[in-house]
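In response to reviewer comment 3 from the previous cycle, which asked for concrete evidence that the modeling workflow produces usable outputs, we include below a single protein chain processed end to end. The sequence was submitted unchanged, and the resulting structure tokens are shown without manual editing.
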Amino acid sequence: MNISENGIHSIRTRVKDAEHLIVKIIRKRQENYKKYRTLDKDNYEKFLTDLIGIRCFILFKADWKKFHAYLEEKIEDNPQYYLDDCLKDFDEDTEHTYMAEMPKVHIRDGDAREIYETVLPPDAIKNKKIYRSVHYIVKYHGVYIEIQVRTLFEEGWGEIDHHIVYPYYQDDMLFQQYTS
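The workflow returned the following structure tokens.
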């Protein structure tokens, strides 16, 4: 992949570490027991779609369209493969690469939506987050990978927010005031 032709400035990758994995499993089961009651150490890879993460950084919002077009060209995006039931919908075929969810655009209230509205359906655009990022969940070689696309400036703010607020101070009014 020629990064500059696809709008990407740079890329960072990570694999979720064991401690964060355990915390996430516990949190998911507490937050929505009905959905995650069967989530355990033997099947977590069927439930958690961010075990592997790729962050793609762009310089300008407009560069996202280039990257999105590249992804659409390379990865099958068929709503019939979107996850609904984590266990039933898990495709055991490790050769089948596809979008496992509709792309999601996280923006803040007041942000311009036009760049995304020309490409994605309105329900793909979420404006309840305190950070900005476009998320893709891709099933690749039998594993879910979360791809996030954001500008370098959004990444800087996201790192500050993640370090200070998430996951320990989500309900702290003082932190919410300064990060919202």
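The chain has one domain: 4-152. We consider this sufficient to address the reviewer's concern, and the full set will be provided in the supplementary archive.
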